[in-house]
Amino acid sequence: MQTCSRCFTQSPDPVLICPGCGAELREFSTTAVALKKFQENPRVLRVQLIVSHDACPACQQLRGAYEKGQAPALPVEGCSHPQGCRCFYEPILDEIYP
Prior knowledge:
Structural class: alpha+beta
Number of domains: 1
Order of helices and strands: EEHHEHEE
Largest sheet: 3 strands, antiparallel
Number of helices: 3
Shape: globular
Helix content: 10-25%
Radius of gyration: 14 Å
Strand order of the largest sheet: 4-3-5
């Protein structure tokens, strides 16, 4: 499942356009917006792709840390989990306090 960051409508992974507001989900899903914020933040060194313990093989294969510009798009293409892709991004920070 993916969630639209504009209207918070949830849609199955294959859906590209939000049925609630018409937003392009590759750009405006909550995970796409989070990745963009991490990429723009100078304190974020890398982005880690977090996967569930029972994730499908496609998601398990992508588990790990990536350079900010190299993180794979979510939902993972080829995800076969019955509930859809449940992966998310986590920032790896350069510094925690200002």
